[in-house]
Amino acid sequence: FLSTRRGAHVIPKYMFGRAMDRVLPAWCWRYLPFKSLQSMFAIGLLLSRGRVVNYGLPKPTHRVLQEHPTVSADLLNILGHGDAVVKPTIQELRGSKVLFVDGTEEEIDVIIYATGYNISFPFLDKEVLDVVDNKVSLYRNVINPQRPGLYFIGLVQPWGAIMPLAEAQSEWAADLIEGKCGLPDPAEMQREIERERESMSRRYTQSSRHTIQVDFFPYLDQLHRERRRRPTAGQPSQPALARA
Fold first, then answer.
1. 163-177 and 216-227 helices cross at what angle (nearest 10)?
2. Alpha helix locations (H) across the chain?
3. Rounded Cα gap, residues 53 and 6, in angstroms
4. Of 18, 55, 177, 195, which sits 20 to 30 A from 92 (CA to CA)?
């Protein structure tokens, strides 16, 4: 059984013979209006796999690209063959049985929870970084404006592979440590953090899973521009690595 709280757009790993995050060329992500991308993806999905309701899944209440994708090459085949049955959210656990909100009850052997995760840094004092409702106030998802010299690598959720973005973040951090580039002043960084957060909140459904969401190519371009930013006159250098 597959219990789901709401509908989702199930996206295959490959479409038209290409990996999903490479179906559209980079310039589309960089320059096309977001609504145009939505329409292109919606048409492509409809042609390649039909409607998710045909497989027993609930109809999504959001448009494609408004949530982090549910990527699977196998799920729709499994549902179509009847190897799994879709159920609504769980209402109650009754010993070895599970009661669902639609009133049905099933004998269940094993429950696998796939409920997401909470972002936390229990090894850091809250004065260093305080995460509230999964929201992390980091400039370009890497730097705390009030803590220069502390870098967070890989704390992003992209449309696409995370490894190239983590590599670009690391190169930027290395440039900052070596003094090859600079940062805006803390107030400007904080304003940019709020602007990006507001932009993402308009783009995606309201959920704690989208607080570190980025678009692959636009975000990569941001990091490349940061590496070209010259240090400003009088800007303090990055703290040297400390030895305990």
1. 10
2. 26-31, 34-49, 75-80, 163-177, 186-203, 216-227
3. 12
4. 55
